[in-house]
Design goal:
With 228 residues, the protein is α+β, with helices and mostly antiparallel strands. The chain has a single domain, classed as Nucleoside Triphosphate Pyrophosphohydrolase. Helix content is 22%, strand content 31%.
């Protein structure tokens, strides 16, 4: 990616791969942090009932926020998990999973999991930064969001046992405040109102929505997208 000498605001007239370079620089200015993430958390009752800080026995995991130019915009990919006996059953999430002993670090965890679940080639993924680690109380897990970039849309090859389907998502669509909605969701046997992103009738909530929220704040701060 080559640095663009323009005013730094991304639009269709600029090379789309400038987005990755500018985001990398913007991340170095500082992260919005946990409080921004928790703006997209569940109801106040849910927030009060669970700690925001991990304990000594908390597990580590990583997710890959893969960004790529597509259809004159910047896209990312989500995966729909199948139903299973677990706290994240059936949810839409970024590719990712728990850190394994053989992983050198959490970046390798994110790349390995993304490859296993979606077929994304780690060798063609440039790591441009991370977001704030997010503690998920219900699974006692600290999730480390890793941001990756590819110069073109990857050829996906999803793992059927772990992924029902993949969602190509236009990042600009998430900047529209009207897709943030609230609805009742049963959590641990209790119906609670949760915030979510309604992306083409796909409900993106929980930790994934919280991670997206921090990324959107950074994108707005850097002025990456001009109005249409």
């Amino acid at each position: 990616m080559e640095e663009n000498e323009n005013n730094g605001i991304w639009n269709k007239k600029l090379r789309m791969d400038d987005f990755g370079l500018r985001l990398k620089k913007e991340l170095l200015k500082g992260l919005p942090g946990t409080e921004i993430q928790w703006q997209m958390a569940s109801s106040d009752r849910f927030i009060k009932n669970f700690p925001k800080s991990p304990g000594k026995d908390s597990r580590e995991a990583a997710v890959l926020i893969l960004l790529y130019p597509y259809k004159q915009s910047i896209y990312t990919v989500f995966m729909q998990r199948p139903d299973y006996n677990g706290v994240h059953s059936g949810q839409i999430s970024f590719p990712g999973g728990k850190k394994e002993p053989e992983d050198e670090d959490l970046i390798q965890t994110a790349l390995r999991e993304a490859f296993e679940e979606t077929g994304v080639n780690p060798a063609k993924t440039e790591i441009i930064g991370r977001l704030t680690p997010l503690f998920i109380p219900v699974s006692n897990t600290i999730v480390y969001p890793v941001i990756g970039w590819t110069d073109e849309k990857p050829i996906f090859n999803q793992k059927s046992e772990e992924v029902l389907f993949l969602i190509d998502a236009d990042l600009k669509r998430f900047l529209d405040a009207s897709i943030v909605k609230t609805k009742p969701v049963e959590i641990r046997g209790e119906m609670l109102g949760v915030k979510y992103f309604d992306y083409e009738e796909n409900t993106i909530w929980g930790a994934t929505a919280m991670i997206i929220n921090e990324l959107l704040v950074i994108i707005r701060r850097g002025g990456f997208f001009l109005p249409e």
